[in-house]
């Protein structure tokens, strides 16, 4: 599966902190039904066995809805279960090394915060870039903010699709208009909400409006 720009419209990153007794797979299904177009499993505190189990469940769910499914950082598990790809940060493996492990047809996303990082990731075979944090965020303790001018400069510098991540809400998503991104990635804006499906639907509509401006 290759990465299509339109698949990156509303990219959901999982976080089990807000499950409130629900199963992760059910919560993600609600998000997809609401309009999520891409799913990344990001579970830093799960033991490998449980992570594998949840990743397999989500892979099956995403296949059912024909939504791309990638795994955060863990290239081995992505290869083992045949996920659509992987998303790596700057401190993880280089995109070129990941490509060598996963093969030519998998999706590789890379986090970038500068034009230099973005160009290097593109050169090494990244399919898309996640740039952020574009707003202050509580979901990632180590997230540094990226100026909107930098986001725009990255979008202009590379030919691959760019999504914005970090602190994006339905209230501030409009501020990203004109930056050159093709979508947004969110965690709490969907999964911390009481009605996950409704939150996804509203965010999807507002993102489309923002991109059309």
TrEMBL record:
For the ligand (2-[(2R,5Z)-2-carboxy-4-methylthiazol-5(2H)-ylidene]ethyl phosphate), the binding residues are 137-139, 167, 187-188
Q: Name one Pfam family in it.
A: TMP-TENI
Q: Which reaction does it catalyse?
A: 2-(2-carboxy-4-methylthiazol-5-yl)ethyl phosphate + 4-amino-2-methyl-5-(diphosphooxymethyl)pyrimidine + 2 H(+) = thiamine phosphate + CO2 + diphosphate; 4-methyl-5-(2-phosphooxyethyl)-thiazole + 4-amino-2-methyl-5-(diphosphooxymethyl)pyrimidine + H(+) = thiamine phosphate + diphosphate; 2-[(2R,5Z)-2-carboxy-4-methylthiazol-5(2H)-ylidene]ethyl phosphate + 4-amino-2-methyl-5-(diphosphooxymethyl)pyrimidine + 2 H(+) = thiamine phosphate + CO2 + diphosphate
Cofactor: bound how, per the entry note? Binds 1 Mg(2+) ion per subunit.
A GO term (biological process) for this protein?
Answer: thiamine biosynthetic process
Q: Where are the transmembrane segments?
A: none
GO annotations of cellular component type = cytoplasm
Write the record's keywords in alphabetical order, separated by commas: Magnesium, Metal-binding, Thiamine biosynthesis, Transferase
Q: Any idea which positions bind Mg(2+)? A: 73, 92
Q: Does the keyword Iron apply?
A: no
UniProt binding sites for 4-amino-2-methyl-5-(diphosphooxymethyl)pyrimidine: 40-44, 72, 111, 140
Q: Where is the Thiamine phosphate synthase/TenI domain?
A: 10-190
Q: Which cofactor does it need?
A: Mg(2+)
Pathway named in the protein's UniProt entry:
Cofactor biosynthesis; thiamine diphosphate biosynthesis; thiamine phosphate from 4-amino-2-methyl-5-diphosphomethylpyrimidine and 4-methyl-5-(2-phosphoethyl)-thiazole: step 1/1
Q: What EC number(s) is this enzyme filed under?
A: 2.5.1.3
* Xref: PANTHER family: THIAMINE-PHOSPHATE PYROPHOSPHORYLASE, THIAMINE-PHOSPHATE SYNTHASE
- Give the protein's function: Condenses 4-methyl-5-(beta-hydroxyethyl)thiazole monophosphate (THZ-P) and 2-methyl-4-amino-5-hydroxymethyl pyrimidine pyrophosphate (HMP-PP) to form thiamine monophosphate (TMP).
Q: Which family does it belong to?
A: Belongs to the thiamine-phosphate synthase family.
Give the protein's recorded name. Thiamine-phosphate synthase
């Amino acid at each position: 599966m290759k990465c299509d720009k339109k698949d990156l419209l509303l990219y959901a990153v999982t976080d089990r902190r807000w499950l409130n007794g629900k199963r992760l797979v059910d919560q993600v299904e609600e998000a997809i039904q609401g309009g999520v177009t891409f799913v990344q499993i990001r579970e830093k505190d799960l033991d490998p066995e449980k992570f594998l189990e949840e990743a397999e469940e989500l892979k099956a769910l995403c296949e059912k809805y024909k939504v791309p499914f990638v795994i955060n950082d863990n290239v081995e598990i992505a290869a083992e279960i045949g996920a659509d790809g992987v998303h790596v940060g700057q401190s993880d493996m280089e995109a070129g090394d990941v490509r060598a492990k996963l093969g030519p047809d998998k999706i590789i996303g890379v986090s970038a915060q500068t034009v230099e990082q973005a160009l290097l990731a593109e050169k090494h075979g990244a399919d898309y870039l996640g740039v952020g944090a574009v707003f202050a965020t509580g979901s990632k303790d180590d997230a540094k903010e990226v100026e909107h001018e930098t986001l725009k400069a990255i979008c202009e510098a590379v030919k691959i699709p760019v999504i914005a991540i970090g602190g994006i809400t339905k209230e501030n998503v409009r501020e990203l208009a004109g930056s050159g991104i093709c979508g947004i990635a969110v965690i709490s804006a969907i999964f911390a909400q009481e009605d996950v499906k409704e939150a996804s639907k509203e965010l999807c509509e507002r993102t489309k409006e923002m991109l059309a401006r």
